[in-house]
């Protein structure tokens, strides 16, 4: 009986695989960190640094049709098992692709955050402290993406009903293109329910062996607050600086080395000069295996 069951499962999997392309992926990321809090008190911890696992699925259009399908399921993995959920939902969406662009629904990442606000967030542990964005990933979302000429357009809207907002709770968009050898992105995000807006620009460029990434973002609330970040990478070394208006500035230095196709080791340190008058210094070392 077991032999027949195994044969049937193998047949079903083979049939599904021929109908759609399924690509598994993941990252096991672990670090030892030595961080100071805003009171200047330091603590050490060995812990997970954002491990994840997922599958990406694409299905080609049928003959005579221009409509294809795609989906993604991604969960964060608590490798230390120190929380209530070993697996935490990161992404879970399904969509249609066509000549008119891609449309998807589910739990998805924010295009303004991905393409503008986190342009200079290139470190494994630190960096990314001087940037304004609405969110990273959200459920109850509808997304659209398309490429028109040399411009890539991404948009997202959220309708979750949690705030009691009538209609759309939040929306955002970004547009990216190549200008004089640099990738430049601009975008806007509107937290409709809380009447807060975000907008900014980001850019990446290569100058010989040097890669430079930067972002400038503004949070438009009762008081406008600006932030900027820049990070430069030369071979193994990356140096970053960011200033968050009303909070402080951050200097980050990191080195990383790829040892095998999937394994990278890294070491980073960050010094924060806070407007409260307290300076903090933190460092981390770790390794990341991706497949």
Describe the 3D structure.
The protein is 9% helix and 62% strand. It has two helices and 17 strands. The chain has helices at residues 2-19, 111-117; strands at residues 21-36, 42-48, 52-59, 68-77, 87-98, 101-109, 137-148, 151-158, 170-179, 182-191, 196-207, 210-220, 224-234, 237-244, 248-258, 263-274, 279-290. A hairpin with a 2-residue loop joins strand 11 and strand 12. The chain is globular and about 60 Å long.
Mean pLDDT: 92
- Helix content range of the residues, please? under 10%
Number of strands: 17
Distance between the termini: 35 Å
Write the layout of secondary structure elements.
Blueprint (H helix, E strand, L loop, with lengths): L1 H18 L1 E16 L5 E7 L3 E8 L8 E10 L9 E12 L2 E9 L1 H7 L19 E12 L2 E8 L11 E10 L2 E10 L4 E12 L2 E11 L3 E11 L2 E8 L3 E11 L4 E12 L4 E12 L1
Antiparallel strand pairs: 1-2, 1-3, 1-17, 3-4, 4-5, 5-6, 6-7, 7-8, 8-9, 9-10, 10-11, 11-12, 12-13, 13-14, 14-15, 15-16, 16-17
